[in-house]
C-alpha cells in the first residue's frame, strides 16, 4: 500500500483526466467536478484516513455518474414517447425538446385495416383477376386459368369472388343507392342547387366516410349469396354449386409476401428502435440542483466501488506487531446497495411524471375538491 498515491487534499480540473471528455467544455461541469472530488474524499474519511484515490479517479466517477443520469432520463423519455417518435427522422436532436404526443403510431396500425374496406385505402394494393368459368367444371387453377399477374411461386389471399360488384366507394357516392352522400347529386338534378337538403356545409372527418364504407361491406356479407367457393392451398378455387353455364367471375386477392411484408417505409435514417432515437449526452449546465445532487451521490457510490476494488487487491496490510484487514468488503457492499437505491429512486420519480400518472393525480385532485365542496354549507339569504 505504500506505493499507492493517496488523495492530496485538493485538485484542479484537467481535460486529460476524464476518459471521454463529454463535458470538458461545460464550465458548470468542470467546476462541479472539482467540488465533487473534494466532497467525495471527505465523505470517504479524508483527512482522518488516507483515501487511495486521485483526481483522475474522482473525475472519472463524476463523468460516469452524469452519463448514467442522462441514460436513465432519456431511456424513460424514449419509452414514454416511442409511439410518437417511431418513424421520424434520426437527424434531429431531442435533448431538451418537448415531445408532443401524436397519432403516428396509431395511424400506422390503422392503415392495416384500410385494405379491408373496399377501395378506401390501405398500405398495399389489392390485385384483381377474373376466371372464365366453363359449364360443368367446378375446380379452377388460379395460376393457369385466370387473367392475373400471379406466378407459381407466390401464395395469395383470396379476398372476394363475385359475378360483378362495384366497389363500396362507388356505391357510397351512387345517387340511387340511398346509402351515402350521393343523394346530393340527385337533389341537385331537380334544381335545388347548392342549398338542397342533401348539402352538408360542415367538413366531416374521413373516418366517418370509412365507417359508412364498412357498413356497406358488412351489409354485403350479411345478405347471403346463393353461390359459394372454397380455396385450396391458396391456388385452387372450387365453386358451389357446379356451374351450369359459362360465365365470368371476378375476384380480388392480395399477394401474401406483400401483405405480410413488415417493412413498409424504406426511407433511410428513420427511428426504428430505441437504439437510434437521437438523444445525446445531457448538457450539465441545464441540469437542476436535484439532478446534480443525484449525480454527486452516484459519483460517491462509484468512488466507494473503486476504492473497495483497490483495497481488495491487498486484503491486509502489516502494522507493528500484527496485520490489519482493509474494509474493501464493506465498501463494495455499500457501493452496490447505494447504486441500486439511487437507480430505483430515479426510476420511481420518472414514473410519477408519465402522462397516465399525471392524469390519475388530476382525477384524484378533482374528486377531493368535489368532496370538499360538498361539505361547504349553502349560504342562507334573508329577504
Describe the model.
By secondary structure, this protein is an alpha+beta fold. It has a domain at 15-98 and 276-366. Helices cover 42% and strands 11% of the residues. The protein has helices at 27-43, 55-85, 104-114, 168-172, 183-189, 206-222, 256-259, 289-312, 328-351, 355-374; strands at 127-133, 139-141, 156-162, 228-232, 236-240, 247-255, 316-319, 322-325. A hairpin with a 3-residue loop joins β4 (228-232) and β5 (236-240). The model is unreliable at 175-181 (pLDDT under 50).
Question: Secondary-structure blueprint of this entry?
Answer:
Elements: H1 27-43, H2 55-85, H3 104-114, E1 127-133, E2 139-141, E3 156-162, H4 168-172, H5 183-189, H6 206-222, E4 228-232, E5 236-240, E6 247-255, H7 256-259, H8 289-312, E7 316-319, E8 322-325, H9 328-351, H10 355-374
Antiparallel strand pairs: 1-6, 2-5, 3-6, 4-5, 7-8
Helix pairs in contact: 1-2, 2-8, 8-9
Radius of gyration: 36 Å
Task: Specify the overall morphology.
Answer: elongated
Biggest sheet descriptor: 3 strands, antiparallel
Report low-confidence residues grouped into runs of 5 or more.
Answer: 175-181
> Helix-strand pattern, N to C?
HHHEEEHHHEEEHHEEHH
Summarize the structure.
With 383 residues, the protein is an alpha+beta fold. It is 42% helix and 11% strand.
Amino acid at each position: 500500500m505504500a506505493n499507492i498515491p493517496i488523495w492530496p487534499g485538493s485538485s484542479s480540473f484537467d481535460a486529460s483526466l476524464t476518459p471521454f471528455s463529454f463535458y470538458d467544455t461545460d464550465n458548470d461541469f468542470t467546476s462541479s467536478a472539482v467540488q465533487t472530488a473534494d466532497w467525495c474524499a471527505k465523505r470517504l474519511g479524508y483527512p482522518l484516513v488516507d483515501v487511495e484515490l486521485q483526481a483522475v479517479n474522482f473525475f472519472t466517477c463524476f463523468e460516469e455518474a452524469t452519463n448514467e443520469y442522462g441514460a436513465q432520463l432519456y431511456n424513460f423519455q424514449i419509452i414514454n414517447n416511442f409511439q410518437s417518435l417511431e418513424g421520424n427522422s434520426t437527424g434531429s436532436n431531442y435533448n431538451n425538446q418537448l415531445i408532443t404526443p401524436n397519432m403516428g403510431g396509431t395511424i400506422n396500425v390503422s392503415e392495416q385495416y384500410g385494405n379491408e374496406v373496399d377501395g378506401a385505402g390501405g398500405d398495399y394494393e389489392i390485385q384483381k383477376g377474373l376466371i372464365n368459368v366453363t359449364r360443368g367444371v367446378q375446380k379452377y387453377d388460379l395460376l393457369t386459368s385466370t387473367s392475373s399477374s400471379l406466378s407459381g411461386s407466390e401464395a395469395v389471399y383470396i379476398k372476394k369472388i363475385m359475378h360483378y360488384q362495384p366497389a363500396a366507394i362507388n356505391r357510397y357516392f351512387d345517387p340511387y343507392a340511398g346509402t351515402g352522400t350521393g343523394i346530393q347529386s340527385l337533389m341537385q338534378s331537380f334544381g335545388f342547387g347548392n342549398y338542397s337538403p342533401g348539402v352538408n356545409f360542415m367538413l366531416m372527418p374521413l373516418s366517418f366516410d370509412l365507417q359508412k364504407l364498412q357498413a356497406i361491406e358488412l351489409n354485403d356479407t350479411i345478405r347471403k349469396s346463393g353461390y359459394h367457393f372454397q380455396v385450396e392451398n391458396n391456388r385452387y378455387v372450387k365453386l358451389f354449386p357446379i356451374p351450369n353455364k359459362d360465365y365470368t367471375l371476378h375476384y380480388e386477392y392480395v399477394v401474401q409476401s406483400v401483405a405480410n411484408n413488415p417493412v413498409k417505409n424504406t426511407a433511410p435514417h428513420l427511428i426504428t428502435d430505441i437504439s437510434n432515437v437521437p438523444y445525446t449526452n445531457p448538457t450539465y449546465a441545464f441540469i437542476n440542483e436535484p439532478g446534480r445532487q443525484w449525480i454527486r451521490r452516484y459519483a460517491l457510490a462509484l468512488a466507494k466501488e473503486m476504492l473497495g476494488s483497490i483495497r481488495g487487491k491487498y486484503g491486509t496490510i502489516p502494522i507493528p506487531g500484527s496485520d490489519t484487514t482493509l474494509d474493501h468488503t464493506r465498501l463494495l457492499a455499500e457501493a452496490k446497495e447505494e447504486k441500486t437505491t439511487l437507480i430505483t429512486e430515479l426510476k420511481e420519480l420518472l414514473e410519477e411524471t408519465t402522462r397516465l400518472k399525471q392524469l390519475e393525480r388530476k382525477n384524484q385532485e378533482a374528486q377531493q375538491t368535489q368532496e370538499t365542496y360538498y361539505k361547504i354549507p349553502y349560504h342562507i339569504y334573508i329577504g
